[in-house]
Design brief:
Elements: H1 4-8, H2 17-33, H3 39-49, H4 53-63, E1 69-71, H5 83-92, E2 96-97, H6 104-110, H7 113-119, H8 129-139, H9 146-150, E3 157-160, H10 163-174, H11 182-188, H12 209-226, H13 231-236, H14 246-265, H15 269-278, H16 284-294, H17 298-310, H18 315-331, E4 346-352, H19 361-369, E5 376-378, H20 382-391, H21 393-396, H22 420-423, H23 425-436, H24 440-450, H25 466-475, H26 478-490, H27 492-495, E6 502-506, E7 511-518, H28 526-537, E8 542-549
Parallel strand pairs: 4-8, 7-8
Antiparallel strand pairs: 1-3, 2-3, 5-6, 6-7
Length: 553
């Protein structure tokens, strides 16, 4: 077993901290994925370890920067000594090209507007850099070395040719597209603190080399999509993911959905529709129905909508499908069905002078509703989610296979998977049982103290203080908390938002109410309506506060 603590311990501090971080990550990859690495990845790890320390550090510095081409005059790292000497071994390995051919696009990214005027004095001085770039792109089609572009200026540009492979290793380490090497630094500085989850070899992100290749391919397609490359070419490169890993299948589904959305925005509804029907990403079926409707295929849209209505993927989809069906039926002349009765919720009306400053309606309502013996807190989604995160901490951070892949995760990879609860049934049930036994408050307090500041997908540490926590635990009945937590567990991705803005406590009476605040012209959103209906069904105290501005003469 390895853990976050063992991975991050005993790293020597110093000026080359970034190199220490990179070496730690490479050791981690070799230990966990040595049998799955490609020959080029294995060769890189071996050759990198044999480089002089200054060359190692220089390469790490460069791959952490944006882009792959760098002017020599912009490479200044005093801790490395003579940078030219550090470049030598990297150039010998062909990991750095000291004289790359640069297109005019590459050149413009590297030089300033003033340098453009210096090099291309035929251009009007009034042009912006973007305008000058557009003209140069038409006039200069052949790439050249930087020295050839600049004439007699003695300066080099270096191309980090090994950068794409290093990007792949970063993706392999983190198992996602958003995290980077700065995670090490933030953890070192104490800005982020992560839960120490035990790792076994079975918990690694990828089970086969095919999984890794598919992951790389998904990343490349996503990059090309964001750079607005031709959709047909991007779609052609999307891999057919056959992995058993739910998280990899989810990334594949999300990419297809994004490509379909782009087809739809471009007016190609038929292609979008075929992709939506193929895709299992949440919301794809709704977009398919909408595409059919916009294409004038109303009967086909109704058939798909009714099928979805019989087996909705979530309460959010069910809510939207109901509206779609009514709208589509009106189009073909079907009499409108009787509307369901609106949920009856306590209403509070506040008429106040228009604010002189930027104070929000939530803060205005909070100030007016608060009483000496009945404090009001602005919590929005933070309170219920935080209480949930504290009570279910052990379930969220359970060291299950395929849940945690590296030591910088704020939550498990399968957090929003439909199987999240089932895979942790025993631990989840044990947490729920504390509510039945009325021991949940002690569990929550203990976790609040023990895990203070540790990254969590639910706990908002900046919101939760001792007063708020104690009022919540003393005033919110265990039955209410159980109902709220059960709804969260039913769909963590969908239900962790839409909760009321404020909570008011009456400590002497051990009661509370949640309050959603709406300003002039504002109305309840769909996820808020679903929470309101749920609270009404379970007799959980909730009110809607309507703030209106008093008329002034």
């Amino acid at each position: 077993m390895n853990s976050q603590a063992s991975l991050l311990s005993d790293r020597p501090p110093g000026l080359l901290y970034y190199l220490d971080h990179f070496q730690t990550a490479m050791s981690w990859l070799h230990e966990r994925y040595g049998d799955l690495l490609s020959p080029s990845e294995t060769e890189f790890l071996s050759l990198f370890a044999g480089l002089p320390r200054a060359s190692q550090a220089l390469l790490v510095r460069l791959i952490m920067r944006r882009g792959q081409r760098f002017r020599a005059s912009k490479i200044r790292y005093p801790e490395l000594g003579a940078v030219d000497l550090a470049f030598g071994p990297l150039i010998e390995l062909n990991w750095i090209d000291p004289r790359p051919a640069l297109s005019v696009d590459d050149l413009v990214k590297l030089i300033t507007r003033a340098e453009i005027s210096e090099l291309f004095n035929e251009l009007p001085a009034s042009l912006t850099k973007a305008e000058a770039h557009a003209l140069l792109r038409e006039a200069y089609t052949e790439p050249r070395a930087f020295e050839e572009w600049r004439g007699n200026v003695n300066e080099r540009v270096y191309l980090v040719t090994i950068a794409p492979l290093c990007t792949q290793l970063r993706l392999l380490f983190f198992g996602n597209f958003r995290q980077g090497w700065s995670e090490f630094v933030l953890a070192d500085l104490g800005i982020f603190k992560y839960e120490a989850v035990p790792f076994s070899k079975d918990s690694r992100a990828f089970g086969t080399r095919r999984d890794i290749e598919d992951f790389y391919a998904l990343y490349e397609c996503r990059r090309r999509l964001y750079e607005e490359e031709p959709l047909a070419e991007v779609l052609e490169q999307v891999p057919r993911v056959s992995s058993q890993h739910e998280w990899l299948q989810a990334r594949h589904a999300k990419l297809l959905f994004q490509i379909a959305r782009q087809h739809e925005r471009c007016g190609d509804r038929e292609r979008a529709l075929s992709l939506y029907k193929e895709c299992r990403y949440p919301g794809a079926r709704l977009r398919a129905i909408r595409s059919l409707e916009l294409a004038g295929r109303t009967h086909d849209a109704i058939d798909l909508a009714r099928s979805a209505q019989a087996h909705p993927e979530s309460s959010a989809e069910a809510q939207k499908i109901e509206r779609m069906v009514k709208r589509l039926e009106r189009k073909i002349g079907v009499p409108a069905s009787k509307r369901a009765a609106a949920v009856r919720t306590e209403r509070i009306d506040l008429i106040v002078p228009p604010p002189a400053g930027r104070e929000s309606v939530e803060m205005i309502a909070r100030g007016l509703l608060a009483q000496t013996d009945a404090p009001v807190y602005y919590v929005e989604n933070g309170l219920i989610n935080s209480l949930f995160g504290l009570l279910f901490w052990d379930a969220i951070f359970a060291p299950l296979c395929g849940a945690f892949f590296h030591p910088f995760q704020f939550g498990p990879m399968d957090l929003f998977s439909p199987t999240f609860r089932a895979r942790r049934a025993e631990v989840v049930d044990e947490c729920l049982n504390t509510l039945e036994a009325n021991t949940h408050a002690a569990r929550i307090r203990q976790t609040f103290l023990a895990k203070q500041g540790t990254q969590s997908p639910f706990v908002t540490w900046g919101l939760l203080n001792d007063d708020l926590l104690e009022n919540a635990l003393n005033c919110m009945p265990a039955a209410d908390l159980r109902a709220l937590f059960e709804r969260l567990l039913n769909n963590l991705a969908e239900n962790r938002s839409g909760l009321p803005d404020l909570v008011q406590f009456w400590p002497a009476e051990k009661r509370y109410r949640m309050v959603e605040v709406k300003g002039p012209g504002d109305r309840l959103q769909d996820n808020q309506l679903r929470w309101m209906a749920f609270c009404a069904q379970h007799q959980i105290s909730v009110a809607v506060c309507h703030v209106r501005w008093a008329q002034t003469l």
